[in-house]
Amino acid sequence: MLKINPDRYGVIAQTFHWATAVLVLIAFIYGLGGNEMRVYDAAHDFQRMLHETLGMSVLALVVLRLLWRLLDTRPAPAAAPRWMRLASTAVHGLLYGLLMALPLTAIFGAWLEGHSLTLLAGVNITSPLPLAHALGQSLAEFHTLLGDAIMILAGLHAAAAIYHHLVLRDCVLKAMLPVWFKVWQPKKRWF
Ligand code: HEM
Ligand code: HEM
């Protein structure tokens, strides 16, 4: 019932995909820059709570999504040269890796620096770890680099999906879209 079409990802897999993409984008926009004092300044409490809540939701979603992926049937890969299929698998693997590593570096970074996780609705998760400030700071800095990395990789991944749709004119993009979402595709090759 949940699988409408064997050529497409199922409704649940599509929902996980697009909800994650939107949450990552908003988390990135509301990412906190600057030094530790600025990040944990009371004036930035709301932005930090929003960012941490969005990021924790990404972590929860990616764990559920990977569990669902074990049970779900995915569409057969589009006919494409071997290098392209390998590149696509590698990028998907890296995206999953980043979706896990981003929240984990932030959580452990904040805890090792001695900060609680502060989420919306007054949820506070105090650090269960001993203080290791320098290591925590390095993890927090690494987290910001990973934030940039996921945007670049997701951008290339989205560009590849659009290239498949417009230039190769195959079903790769449609596979991740619901059947009711009609998207224009050229009838003939451009060159
Ligand atoms: C997919 C999820 C996430 C993305 C895309 C993301 C992205 C970013 C980015 C790009 C920055 C740097 C902003 C800038 O330099 O202008 C940042 C900083 C930060 N993020 Fe995240 N983040 C995510 C998840 C989380 C989570 C789950 C937490 C906490 C539980 C968190 C806590 C922080 C903190 C505390 C900083 C400031 C780092 C510092 O101390 O310098 N983030 N994030
Ligand atoms: C932060 C943003 C994004 C992330 C983290 C992300 C992540 C992923 C991941 C991990 C997969 C593999 C799914 C699986 O087989 O389990 C995937 C598939 C896919 N994504 Fe994204 N994605 C993002 C944004 C986008 C955007 C903006 C588009 C379209 C413009 C897009 C189009 C697709 C398509 C068409 C597939 C299926 C590819 C195939 O089966 O070969 N994604 N995405």
UniProtKB/TrEMBL annotation:
Keywords: Cell membrane, Electron transport, Heme, Iron, Membrane, Metal-binding, Transmembrane, Transmembrane helix, Transport. GO terms for molecular function: electron transfer activity; heme binding; metal ion binding. It is found in: Cell membrane. Residues 8-178 form the Cytochrome b561 bacterial/Ni-hydrogenase domain. The chain crosses the membrane at residues 12-33, 53-71, 91-112, 149-168. Its cofactor is heme b. It is a multi-pass membrane protein. One of its GO terms (cellular component) is plasma membrane. GO terms for biological process: respiratory electron transport chain. It holds the Pfam family Ni_hydr_CYTB. Belongs to the cytochrome b561 family. This is Cytochrome b561. The lineage of its organism: Bacteria, Pseudomonadati, Pseudomonadota, Betaproteobacteria, Burkholderiales.
